[in-house]
Structure formats: C-alpha cells, structure tokens
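Let us begin with a simple case.
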Amino acid sequence: MRVSVTHYHPMWPPTDPAVQCPKHWIENILFINSLTDNRCMPWTWYIGTEFIFYLLAPIFLLTLRRNPSLGLGISVATIVVSAVLNVICMLIYNFPPTQLLWKQPANFNPDFILHHLVIYIKPWYRIGPYIVGILLGYHLAGYQAQTQKKSRSLRFVLTGWAIAGAMLFWGLFGVYPALQGWDWPIYHIVYGATHRTVFALGLSWLIYACHTGLGGPLNSFLSSRFFLPLSSLSYSVYLIHMIPVVFTYLIVPFPLHFTAKWRYFIHCFIQLCISYVFGTQCTLMAELPVLNIERILLTRDRKATLKPVPQNDCELQLKPTEEGKGSAPTSPRAMSPNKT
C-alpha cells in the first residue's frame, strides 16, 4: 500500500502522477502524448511534438531537394496555415496569446489547463518554428557546398543583427501587454499567431551568422567546450527536471514569500543543480548505453567497404629496391614475367 502525505500539500498537482501514469504510460512510449490529454508526465509533451515533426521532416526535405521552389512554397504555406489555426482557436476559446498559467487577466479565458490541452501542446499550432529550422538547414547545406563564399558587406551584417535582435526581443517580451490585461485584441491575435515563428527567425540569423563567420566573439562564446557536457545532459535533464522542481516546493513552507529577488534565483538555482545531478545519473544508466548499442548496430563494417588501390609507376619508383641503394628501380614491366 502506498502511503503519501504529499497529496495534501497545496502544491500537489491536480492530476496524480501515481494514478495517471499507470493508465497512460503507453502514450509516452509511443510519443503521442501531445495528441491526447497528456496526463502522464505532462511536461514531456515537447518530446512527443518534436518526434512528430521529425517524422514529417522528410516531406519538406525531399521536396526541397527535388524542386526547391515547390518545397519553399509548401513550407511557407504550412507556416501560414499553422498561424491561421492559432488565430481561429484563440478566437473560439478567447485564449491569451500564450500560456500565462496562474496570472490570467480578466479579459481572457481563465482556464489555463484547457489552454494547455487544446492549443499549447498540439503539433499543428507549433510547426512553424520547426519549418524555419528546416529551411535554415537547407540554406546552410547549399552554402557549405559553395566553393567560393560570398563576402557580406558591413551594412548587411549590421542590418541582420538589428532585425534579429528586434525579433528575439519581441518574441520574448511582446507578451507584456497581455500580462497587463490591456485590451489590444488585434495585437494579441497577431502575437499569438506569429511570436514563435518570429523568434525562430531571429534565432536563425544567430545560427547563420555563427556558421558563416559573422558571429565574432558571440560565436566563440557559444562554441566553448564548457557547453559540451551540459548539452550532452540536456535531454535527460529536461526529461526529469519537473520532479526535483515539484519536490523542492513540497519540502518548503507554503505559500512562498520571496522578500527579495535573489531568494527566488537561489531557489531556482538549487532546482537546476538537483536536476543536473539526476540528469547525469539518467544519462549514464540509460541514455549513453542505448546510444552505444545503436552505434554498434548501425555502424558499417569499414573493412568490407575498403577497396585496394592499385600502385602506379611513380609510387613504385619511390620505394627502395631489395637489391640495395645503388641498384636502379625496377619498373612493373620488368617485374612481370615475359610471355613468349
């Protein structure tokens, strides 16, 4: 019998993981939890959504390879359709432009759980940024194949950084009017339909600049070896990070009173450290062994693919003969037996 006193804590989630996961674990295994009500480990909706995008990616990639104009048209049309679906859903349910959790202004639908299930986690509302990444990768692949790289003018570089900075800033802080409850319906609809794609476009310039040598010190910082172990642990940390977050809240008095901002940052930093500790264990016990098995099964035998390279006359003439240094090099014709 499972005995738990944490059920009576005010921070305990409304859906009990110990009850929901035994019933809905198959949805997480099949990566379809973002298509359902996402009742087991609800923060893993992103993994299911990205897996669906991964399955759909060959449609765009193959079309871009065979007919770039058609592929670009399909990609842009998909982004537009996704934005239109966001607008329709926001108008029907009176949703805010993005998930605001417990701080729901009075002019929006206060049911943030409904917002999470209906629009926030569904793939067809989020595919825009993924397609932007596909188009960026396609462009960078063509740039890499060029023998002569075009030099960019200073005006082009400065303009690109300015536009990208504005896009990133608006994608992050453009939700401020919604948080304040300002009655700007047109702005809220435009922001809700486009802010993720706009943010992806700004981030694409950052990747493009670093890849083409326009990143400068920022590229050196982002390419630092310090981030290598952190990036290797990112998947496992994301997979289990909510467990340390919830339990750190369960062991402290509730409600929380942050008298200063530094107390809030310390609390979040402790959660981050605990998440990386458990993420490291998860990586060592599960992720790395599976990756090694996959590498062993999918790696080709290099010995079977090697072909003997015939030696030409120049290679034989450079090798010393067995008769001594003073002897003349022997040509392949002299080494072969005479046919009578």
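The second case is a distinct protein. As before, the sequence precedes its structure tokens.
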Amino acid sequence: MSHPRIRIAALAAVAIAVSLLITACTGTPAPGPTTARPTATSVAGLPTGVQQATDVPTDVPNTPELRKNVALASCEKADGGWRAGGTASNPTDTAVDYTITVFFTTDTGTVLGTADTTVSVGAKEKKDWTATAALTPAPKTVCVLRGVG
C-alpha cells in the first residue's frame, strides 16, 4: 500500500472514531428537578446588587410591518426598576393590538430584565405605551425594543 493510501485510511479511521465518540456523548439528559428557576443571578463584572436576568424570553413576537409603527421614546428609572415608553401608531382603517417587548440591558448587552405590554390602537390613531420591569439598574441601563407582534 502506498503512503497516500495509508494516510487516507488513517484519516477515515480517525473520522469514524470521532463520530462514534460524539454520538455516544449526546444521549438524552436525565430529567432535572422541577423547582422554580430564579429570575436573576449575580454575574462577575456587574456592580454590586445588579443581577443578570435568567428568565429571558427567547421566542419574542416580532413582525416588521407592526414594528415600524412603534417608537421607543423614553428609557428611565422607575420605582423599583426601570421603565421604557413610546408611541404606537396605527395607519390602517381597523383597530390593531400591538404586543411590545422590551429588554433592559447594561450598556454592554447583559439583560437585566424584560417587560411586555399590549396596547390597542384604533384606526388612524396613535397611543402612548409603557413597559416596566422590577430590577436593580446598572449605571448605564439601556432599553431595547426587542419585538412588536
């Protein structure tokens, strides 16, 4: 057998061994306890008392046709947390319900809390909205309009 054939055979054997190891390590995990998860956790690098949110939604409704009608205009401290606010406009001839989701983050993107609100806007009307989360704010807390559905 020539050297190139030996190399190809050796590489094939290594590839098969690696795939078997990976397959053997990806079994179904055992079910864990059903205790309530905390909503926040301390993270290195955050100021004392500021905690990272642990219950962050991953499937947030976000429809571009609706999102373009919602503006985030304010981001400010509120009693016991932080508040975002803005306006929702309805350019259509029928009433629209907007579900607005806001993430409150540090200036480097760590999520501290989330909030959502639903606002009903009549045909050709505009309404103010607010969403508030209970959290300890970071020195530079940012409001992110995460989704509108």
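Helices lie at 3-24, 64-67. The mean pLDDT is 82.
Keep these points in mind for the review questions at the end of the chapter.
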